[in-house]
TrEMBL record:
GO MF term set: 3D-(3,5/4)-trihydroxycyclohexane-1,2-dione hydrolase activity
EC number(s) recorded for this UniProt protein: 3.7.1.22
Keyword annotations from UniProtKB, A to Z: Hydrolase, Thiamine pyrophosphate
Entry-linked PANTHER family: 3D-(3,5_4)-TRIHYDROXYCYCLOHEXANE-1,2-DIONE HYDROLASE, THIAMINE PYROPHOSPHATE ENZYMES
Source organism: Rheinheimera tilapiae
Domain Thiamine pyrophosphate enzyme N-terminal TPP-binding: 70-154
Entries under CDD domains matching the protein: TPP_IolD (cd02003), TPP_PYR_POX_like (cd07035)
Sequence ranges assigned to domain Thiamine pyrophosphate enzyme TPP-binding in this UniProt record: 453-604
NCBIfam families listed in its UniProt record: myo_inos_iolD (TIGR04377)
Coiled coil start-end: none
Superkingdom of this protein's organism: Bacteria
Protein family (similarity comment): Belongs to the TPP enzyme family.
The protein's name in its UniProt record: 3D-(3,5/4)-trihydroxycyclohexane-1,2-dione acylhydrolase (Decyclizing)
Domain Thiamine pyrophosphate enzyme central: 243-377
Amino acid sequence: MNQATPQSGQQNTVAASTIRLTMSQALVKFLCAQFISHDSVADSNAGSAQIEPLFAGVFAIFGHGNVAGIGEALFAAQSKLPTYRAHNEQGMAHAAIAYAKAQQRRRIMVCTSSVGPGATNMVTAAALAHANRLPLLLLPGDHFANRTPDPVLQQIEHFGNPMIAATDCFQPVSRYFDRINRPEQLIHSLPVAVQTLLDPVNCGPVTLALPQDVQAEAFDYPVSLFEQRIHYIRRPAAEPRELAAAVALLKQAKKPLIIAGGGVHYSQACAALSQFASSQGIPVAETQAGKGALAWTHPFAVGGIGVTGSAAANVLAQEADVILAIGTRLQDFTTQSRTAFAGAHQRLIQLNIGGFDAGKHQALPLVGDAATVLAQLQDALTERHSDPAWSARAALLDHQWQQQYERLTADPLSSLAEATPSSSRQQLPSDAQVLGAVKRQSAATDVVVCAAGGLPGELHKLWRAEGPGTYHVEYGFSCMGYEIAGALGVKMASPSREVFVVVGDGSYLMLNSELATSVMLGQKITVVLLDNRGFGCINRLQRGTGNAGFNNLLEDCHGDAPDIDFAAHAKALGAQSERVGSIAALEAALQRARQSKRSYLIEIKTDPLTSTDNGSWWDVAIPQVSALPGVQAAHASYSEQKKQQPY
């Protein structure tokens, strides 16, 4: 059969419109062509904004599943897309997530690993990013798409389905997942991946599994795929009927309360929230993700809310008649398992960019960008008059809580410190006293980083956040081991700030390898390690549910408890370190750490039994049948508390 021969001019046009690259080279070239506009509401109106590369770099641990393909492409692109060597795949992904959080979801890091355990090590981090709605691009290696050498090293074989691979573990914890089985599939998947990473509603981890043979295969890609593109974050306004309903409720409110969530930060709406709260006379409580939206000195700031919140915020939540929740999914710690504000006299408005969250808890939904909708509410409520008595009530409760803070966080040798029963263990400082020392030695621009155990609760209750960017606690997934890796990511995102990590011995032992990475990269962090000899937080929960201490504190575990020298371990990883025995010594050590140019760890032993009580309740199921009298009594109390829930 005769075929029409293209004219020479047509051939030149086709050749000029494509470029032959390996799949890996095309992927990296595409990433380098993506930029982000850092526009606030004011910037977008004025037409001025800062433009930066969207992808700030790649964390990579190479293996046979990615070194020859992605590794070759990254080597050639180092000037535009730097590659950082990490020590643990989960740790490097945590660092990447923390970087994105510190950048308010505007800039993103990439993580690539080999096939097999290198890939599955990142699944926990993907779940963390998914739970926290944070962007992360994962490029795990995969087995051969052509299956010629199967089974290959580290391949998971499914007896009934040869298409299933270890990377399928990422599917339930990814917002978007694809396995690139042909080079040309990138042309569709890469734009979708970026759209997902930047979508304020669907934001979360993206996984592109890369079979190692396809990484090295070439294709004639359209040049248009690699044209520079500048992205921006959508800022939708509220639907007029929803806005009118919310305005009507707020106009009638006598005792309104705002709950600020992480969405306030990601919308860059902190200044708008401050103005709105001040003009309307509405106190503002904060979730873990929202903490720092207002400085603790703001006249309408009342601290954290919920199980780990301040007594002031929790009392106000019970008394409020209208609650405006902004940018939060209102998880159980915030709502005290749906008992914090479930009164028949209360109405809830959920201002959220996502309809999925805006309709929770039988709320009146108000779907839209936080900064944009706050401006709409401000314009619509110019004639609303706040109740001075309600503002005074909030100020009084917050003042009482601040007095409590001073007592709880004082040096135990200070006259301000609360008296505690005398015992050898209780002579050790509490978590609150350690946090007080760290705060006293902190500057207003410093960042505190934490994740799991009892410390996030103490921080939420007691840390005096100085404003946006100063408080970084991962509590959506509450992942032990995030702390040090996360601090590395925060430091990379905010190199001019001092970054302090507060971490328990349990989390440190789970994942500490990125302390060595911080030394290697010259990204100095200060780690305050509280050694309470075990999992103190869960030990307290265990005892609070009527059980005896068992398998949490090292002394209650099977075997001989080791005496771990954490300072020596940190020194072995390349950090400077020391061990201190008192709050005064800790404060002196913190001064030395601030002067250090290298990552610094300070170890101090603490009391595992003491925590700050705020009178809150959290639903933790108690066995209905038990031979233990303590459990029987705890279940009886639990049954009474359950009656406070709406259903």
